[in-house]
Amino acid sequence: METLMTFEKLIDNVKTYIRRESDLARLEAAYQMSSFKHATQTRKSGAPYITHPLAVAYILSELSAGPNTLIAALLHDTLEDTPTSYDEIKAQFGEEVAQLVDGVTKIGKISFNQEVSQADNHQKMLLAMGKDIRVVLIKIADRLHNMRTIHYQSSEKQLKIANETLDIYAPLAHRLGLFKIKAELEDISLRIVNGPFYHRIKHLIENQEQIKNVSIEHMMSKIKEHLSEHHVEHYQISGRTKNIYSIYKKMTKQNKDFEDIYDILAIRVIVDRIEDCYQVLGVIHAHFIPIPKRFKDYIAVPKPNMYQSLHTTILSDDGSIFEVQIRTYEMDKVAEYGIAAHWAYKESKEYSKEKEQFEIAQKLKWYADLLKMSEDADDKNEGANEFVQTVKNDILEANVYVFTPKGQVVELTKGCTPIDFAYRIHSDVGNKMVGASVNNRIVPLDYELQTGDIVAIRTSKNVTGPSEDWLKMAKSSHARHKIKGFLNKQNKDNLLEMGKDMIERELTPLKLEMSQITDEFVVKHFSKNMTETVEDLFVEVGKGIISPKTVAAKLSGKELDKETMLQRQLEKAKRILTTNHESGLIVEGLSTPQIKIANCCLPVPGDSIVGYVTKGSGIAVHHENCPNVKNLTEMRFVDVYWATNITRKYPTRIQIIGQNRDNILSEIIATINATSLTIAEVNAISNARLESITTLKILTSSKSEIENVMVNLMKINNIYHIERRFK
């Protein structure tokens, strides 16, 4: 049963840090308004809807959120789910609260059906975060309560919500330093996404706790004894267990066995001052053997989410291995509550949203990067998918920390190069880059940066900018986006000059002037080509989309008669529609091309495809997303198309991952046999993580057939991932 939150419980917690009567009265007014607006609504559990905003506000009160944040939490669903207006909230609670509620509303409920809509919503959330971080704090609290009650949702929706939580919300909570919330979001999500693995790790942890409880108590007793000998006082010592999802990531992404993870159980020592941290470290290293390369000083170099602590791994006298974390009480508070601990509401402090945003950007380098990316997205109307991927890849998943020559920390993803570093500093630094040195040693531009590297970029005003090769060397979405933008502009400039020259060559014999081509002329004659300025016209001519002869003819008033134009269009159509019936593929201008479907990716009708002219084997047709395509020479690509009169079937591969149980393979085969598809090949294995991995080669006549059978396969119990295989 869901534990229902009450206003009395919320207000009791709030009164521990908010005592001003006027603020408490506003909170009660917000509760009364929300309760009235949601009066006829219930949760899927059957509980009154008001229990949800109350629970969200309570989660934020545990983070010592301010009155306006709590009021906005109580009202966060009123604009979307009730007949409440922005002006109504503004009139009763002020502009700031109305903006917060509106910000949460604009993030909107995620559409679980359309990928584009999902990216749009994620983009709204990240952009809203750039405008006021409290909006996302409310959204994270909202997601946490929804995860706590997720068992009331359908299995399909649970899976999608859990995946999204792992994708966006848990990394955001981590970046904000909200460790307790992040750990809870991850563990609930893992229980849904991969239940067998979750319960297996949970069982292993419980077993280890039982085995090591005596050892931990013995170790803590020994540490206390040694600290007393060295007159260390005023400290706390305790044990802690790593959350299940963190262990899952190490086992799957780092391919570690459970027994090889040293920090599952750790001992934490909390002291008063920073100098006490190093004294405790010295005492522990003096009496226990430290494991080489396992010491980390996050006090001198804090994590990007402000986390500070000393970590060391030691060998006890009974042969057990323990991680020991040493930090101050203030550091421990930040480690548990992150940014919320630093900006906890204090009635004596003068509050300013703008000042707080600035301070956050100063403290959290990644947040400053997010603000910059948000500005770029606003200025250049960047696509939602691209913006979200950039933030996810370059901010939420960053895990390599390098330094500028002045000692500033720059955070990058694993595999990044000096090119990524340069563009993270500034676009102009990237565009003018001519070389790089790491740790005072000149390195190639594709050098993979490592944590601790000191990176210096050499620039020159005389360089023309990045080359196409840089796209292969840059690993971050941000750098690749900036390089593509520069190259596209450069390419556009080249096309513009080319088109201008082509038109000029046509006009000269006719004694016509370039000055006669104006924006009005272009709109009149070429608006149907989505071309409305002189520059656009030059670019389209440079691309070969519009003929310079057509421009000259329209300018001179001697256009081709309709019959001649129709004849030319028919001839062009005939060239385009020349098809090879055996392959079902079209190559413009070739009547009997030698074509083969690439075996590495096996595209099917409906897939986006590219053709590649091979040496001696004709044209190989690849799926657009085939990993091999990026390694091919660009000059040898040709356009290929699927014909409309296809009658044959094509092979393609899908991979199905699920729990390893009896009859799962027979259920998969039965589901496919119930369709018009044919199974050509089956390969089924199980791995060390108790998963069944089935790879099938299936004969189909269209992409939609494959997608439909994948939807049906997902309905089989204990299957949790299906994908097309392009390699």
Automatic annotation (TrEMBL):
Xref: SUPFAM superfamilies: HD-domain/PDEase-like, Nucleotidyltransferase, TGS-like
Residues in TGS domain copies: 396-459
Biological or metabolic pathway of the protein: Purine metabolism
Domain HD, first and last residues per copy: 49-147
Any one Pfam family match given in the protein's UniProt record, by short name: ACT_4
InterPro entries xref list: ACT_dom, Beta-grasp_dom_sf, HD/PDEase_dom, HD_domain, NT_sf, RelA/Spo_fam, RelA/SpoT_AH_RIS, RelA_SpoT
Superkingdom of the organism of origin: Bacteria
Biological function: In eubacteria ppGpp (guanosine 3'-diphosphate 5'-diphosphate) is a mediator of the stringent response that coordinates a variety of cellular activities in response to changes in nutritional abundance.
Assigned protein family: Belongs to the relA/spoT family.
The name this protein goes by in its record: Bifunctional (P)ppGpp synthetase/guanosine-3',5'-bis(Diphosphate) 3'-pyrophosphohydrolase
Species of provenance: Paracholeplasma manati
Taxon lineage: Bacteria, Bacillati, Mycoplasmatota, Mollicutes, Acholeplasmatales
